[in-house]
Amino acid sequence: MTDPISKTLAPTTPASGASTGTPATASELAATRQRQGLAYGVGAYTLWGLLPLYFMLLLPAGPVEIVANRVLWSLLFCAILLTVTRSWKTFALVLKRPKTLGILAIAALLIAVNWLAYTFGVMSGQAVEASLGYYINPLVSVLLGVLVLKERLRPLQWISVGIGFLAVVVLTVAYGKLPWIALTLAFSFGFYGLVKKKVGSGVDSITSLSVETLVLAPFAAVTMVALTLNQAATVTGYGSTHFWLMAASGAVTAVPLVFFGASAARLPLTTIGMLQYLAPTLQLIIATLVLHERMSPERWIGFGMVWLGLIILTVDALRHTLTVRRR
User: Fold this and answer.
1) How is residue 268 annotated by DSSP?
2) Would you call 157 exposed, middle or buried from its count of C-beta atoms within 10 A (0-12, 13-18, 19+)?
3) Rounded distance between C-alpha atoms, residue 228 and residue 132, angstroms
4) pLDDT at 13 over 70
C-alpha cells in the first residue's frame, strides 16, 4: 500500500538536471531524497521538542482539557488530511477490519496515556522528568523486544540497558521518588511502538492517526461536556486567542507526524534513530533555561548515565548496520 504522506510530500526534483539538461543520476536522486528526509525529520523532532512552550501558552487549561481538545481538533485535522490525500477509502477499509481496528484501539489508549502523562509533567513543573522519559524510551524499547518479542540482544545492548536501569535507580534517589512520569512516558510509548508493529506497513500513518483519534474522540467529547458542566473548561471562556491556540492543537499533533512519515520514507532507520534525541534535548533545554526547573548534581549524574547508555546503544546500532551492509 502506498503511504499517502509519500505521495503528498513527494520529492519535486526534476528527472533531468536543471542547469545542464542532463538526466540526474541515481546517486543524485538518492542524495536529494536524503536531504529532504533530513529536513522533514529535523522539522518533526523540533516541533515535538518545542511542545512545552506551546503547552504553557494554553494556561489556564489543565492537562485533561488540553488532551481532550488535542483529540477533538486532531480529528478535524485528520479529516482534512484524508481529503487532501484521497485516503477516505483506505480509512473505511480499516474500519471494516475488526482485528486491525482492535489493535489501533489499543494503540489509541496507549498514546492517550502518553499524552496525558507528558502534558501533566510539563504543566506541573516537571518538564525535565518528561524529557527523561523520551531519553529512556529507546532503552525501554530494547528491553521490551527481549521480554515481549523474545529478541536476543547483543552484548553492547545488554550493557546499555543495564546502565539505563542503574540510571533510574540514581534518579529515584535524586528525585526522592520513582520518576513515574518518565517511566510512564517511556513504557507507554514503547508499548505503543510494539502495538503499531503488529499493524506493520499495512496501514499508513495518516489513516492510523485518524483511526486512533476516532477511537479517542467519544471519550474526549464526554470529558469536555463534563468539564463544561462543572465550569472547568477554558476553551471558550478566555477570549479568541485562547480558543484558537487550543484549536491549533490539531495541527500541532498531526503536522509533526506527517513530517515524520515523510522522513521515515526517505531516511535509513539508523538516521531516524539518531534524530529522535533532538526532541528530548530541546525539551530539557526549555525546561532548564526557559521554565527554570532545577537540576541538582545527582540528576545530572542520572541523566549522564542515560546519555552514556544511549551512546553505547547508538554505536552498537551503527556497527551492526555497517556489518550487515558488508555481507
Assistant:
1) -
2) buried
3) 34
4) no
Nearest-angstrom CA–CA distance, 18 and 16: 6
CA dihedral (97, 101, 103, 104) positive or negative: positive
Q: What is the pLDDT of residues 64-84, one digit of tens each?
A: 999 999 999 999 999 999 999
Q: Which of 171, 57, 179 is nearest to 123 (CA)?
A: 57
Cα 52 to Cα 83, 183, 213, 288, 320: the distances in Å are 30, 18, 22, 12, 35
Q: Which grid cell sits at 36?
A: 529532504
**Average confidence score pLDDT of the chain:** 86
pLDDT at residue 319 in the model: 82
Cβ–Cβ under 8 Å, residues 291 and 127: yes
Number of DSSP helices (H) and strands (E) in the chain, helices first: 15, 0
Residue-wise DSSP of 175-193: HTS--HHHHHHHHHHHHHH
* DSSP SS3 for 20: coil
The residue written with cell numbers 494556561 in the block is: 59
Segment holding 225, helix H or strand E: helix 205-229
Using CA atoms, how far apart are residues 184 and 145, in angstroms rounded to an integer? 17
- Collapsing DSSP to helix, strand or coil, 327 comes out as coil
What predicted TM-score, i.e. pTM, was given to this entire model?
A: 0.84
The pLDDT tens digits of the residues spanning 91-103 come to 999 999 999 999 9
Residue 32: pLDDT band (50, 70, 90) is confident
